[in-house]
Write a structure and sequence with these properties.
With about 220 residues, the chain is mainly α. Helix 4 packs antiparallel against helix 5 and helix 5 runs antiparallel to helix 7.
Length: about 220
């Protein structure tokens, strides 16, 4: 039994650096997601506002051919939702509205892409750090038992190194939590913006009577 315990303790020596490496990877991925979402959401908001204004003017001027071409080429989420409605334009208005609504949901879900990664890192990193701390302390006490030296100078260094893992875990998790909450708010705001634009465009299309109240 003692041999099994010693063997298990021996395997922890490489797992502590592995925990640190995992946290480093988490940190890199987290920062990457933050930059990606910041740039992507900013670009989508800019394209959404510009294309909505252009499409609305085309609808008001009855430029049907230009509208279809612009909708097909646009990368704005509201334009993609409108495209789903245009494909069913000659069918029942309820089917048109349902198609637009479903595409709005798809586009809004796409806005939150990669945010689950931030959420996972935020919830997992502290546990990885704690895991590294437990293994580090286990190694420290194993070394004390092996050498019989219990002085502060022999104990402080390995234990402080072990506790450092928890600090790193928290250091990775806290920015990830803050970023997740921030980008979740931006996604919710942009989703409402997209939905509002898509339904207002649909309501103005001749022959498409989407149940929308209010005008832009």
């Amino acid at each position: 039994m003692e041999q099994m315990i010693e063997a298990a303790i021996g395997t922890t020596s490489f797992m502590v650096p592995l925990a640190f490496l995992t946290l480093v990877i988490f940190s890199i991925v987290s920062v990457g997601v933050m930059f990606e979402r910041a740039l992507t959401l900013k670009r989508i908001r800019r394209v959404e506002d510009a294309d909505f204004a252009a499409l609305r003017d085309m609808i008001l001027k009855n430029q049907d051919q230009a509208l279809r071409a612009s909708v097909a080429a646009s990368q704005a989420p509201s334009a993609m939702a409108l495209q789903a409605g245009l494909e069913l334009r000659d069918t029942h208005p309820d089917l048109v509205h349902e198609a637009i609504t479903q595409e709005i949901e798809v586009q809004c879900a796409e806005l939150g892409r990669n945010l689950p990664i931030l959420g996972t890192i935020a919830s997992t990193a502290p546990y990885v750090g704690l895991f590294g701390t437990v293994l580090g302390i286990l190694n420290a006490f194993s070394e004390i038992a092996r050498t019989g030296q219990t002085g502060a100078s022999q104990v402080a260094a390995p234990i402080s190194e072990a506790l450092f893992a928890t600090g790193v875990g928290l250091g990775v998790a806290i920015p990830a939590v803050m970023a997740y909450n921030y980008f979740s708010g931006r996604v919710n705001d942009l989703s409402l913006h997209v939905e509002n634009h898509a339904l207002k465009l649909a309501a103005r299309l001749p022959g498409m009577k989407a149940p929308v109240e209010g005008e832009a």
